[in-house]
Amino acid sequence: MTAHPHGTPDGASAGRPLRVETHGLDVIEDAERKGTPRTLFWPWFGANVSVLGLGYGAFALGFGISFRQALAAGALGIVVSFLLCGFVAVAGKRGSAPTMVLSRAAYGVRGNRLPAVVSWVLTVGWETVLTALATMATATVFGALGWGGGTGTKAAALMVVAALTVVGGVMGFDLIMRLQTWITLVTGILTIVYVALVADRIHWSAVDALPAGPAQRFIGALVFMMTGFGLGWVNAAADYSRYLPRGSSSRGVIGWTTFGACLAPLVLLVFGLLLAGSAPELSQAIAADPIGALATVLPPWFLVPFAVVAVLGLVGGAVLDIYSSGLALLSAGLRAPRYLAALLDGILMIAGSVYIVFFADDFLGQFTGFLTTLGVPIAAWAGVMLADLALRRRDYDEADLYRPHGRYGDVPLLPPGVTLAATAVGWGLVTNTAAHWLAWQGYLLAPLGLGGRTGPWAYANLGVLAALVLAFLGTLSTGRARIRRQEARVPGPAREQLPLP
């Protein structure tokens, strides 16, 4: 198997020297578009093979549901949410630009800045969470080995993890694709060893005895899995498919994106459910330190390899996040080279990681609050983007994606209005106890007869699903005429003749 020029399997220049990627929001030219849809397997698998997937088993059972309910909620949430990523990835090969630039076709060139800001906050939040988890996992392993797991260890671990993440984000696509291939191989092998070592801790009788929960809790677990997996990536789903040739199979793009992203989480979820369901005390410990708690059931000789697999898996996800967060920041209006945007995000990531590692007491509470609050507007954006993509019969006019007076407009009223309305409904149907300043959420639960902020539907997180569906249907029903007018316009001057916003 040879290496693609961008580090993916399929090309012919494995020995190409690494350099900082100069592409930012610009369109990838045809001469640089190589590979096949199956090369998408590597970045998506490498970003989601983290042993954090085992922790999601405990997270799902934490909703008070049975093993079978948690398995169904997890599998459905993972597959459906990553399938949405696969659909959005098609836009990448059709438009050759980053996800949050392609979003301008729906929102207008400058109207797209609002969803770009939300996307930026989400990706910075995710890279911060992953970096903090890698830091805490390293400290836990060092403590278990008697090498010290205190403040000094955490500080050193944070510097190493942050350095790996920031360097990958600054260097860009070429290094990321090469890293993800190796991360996939190393973490995949070591994760299999982990599963083999702790398999004897599974007790089916305990797992099978877990009582079933009501439908509201099942839905809550389902939505949590969707926001924790695919909806956390959907706003970056086209950032890698944009390097594929225009003639690449759309079915292949959808299939390889979904398959690569789903494979590891599905396997890890099943084992995580069995492990957490067998030991309630382990399930509770995962809420405070997901990766570190999983290390406590290992023999000492495997702790160092476990630290390697934990850190590499989390860094694999964080690197993709920092790359996409830099692109989102540029889409939001920052005028700077891509690598400087990634560096700025790295600084924010480090600051957020310091807070989580050294000051936050309840990781799961903070994590859940983060996912539900930002999951609503991202779900609304995804609904608009998916409906807009489904209505288009032609590829994007790449020049007009950068031209406020082109076919896509500057600040159209309808798509942002649909997004804001869907978000308002969504926030009215979720609750967030992780932060007092978000206590206003859930304001529709009582008027709609769902029991209010303390009723049975309070933690079902219906708002994420509502925002996704309302935005999709709203765009599908109102956007057809607008898109037909866009596609009927005569192409304007070439992109090289225009100043790019």
Characterization of this structure:
The protein has 501 residues and is mainly alpha-helical. The protein is built from 19 helices and no strands. The protein has helices at 41-48, 52-61, 67-95, 99-102, 104-107, 113-144, 151-171, 173-198, 204-208, 215-228, 250-278, 280-288, 290-295, 303-331, 338-358, 363-391, 414-427, 462-478, 480-488. Helix 6 (113-144) packs across helix 7 and helix 17 (414-427) runs antiparallel to helix 18 (462-478). The longest helix is centred in the N-terminal third of the chain and has 32 residues, at 113-144. The radius of gyration is 22 Å and the shape is globular. Residues 1-15 have low confidence and may be disordered. It is found in: Membrane. It is a multi-pass membrane protein.
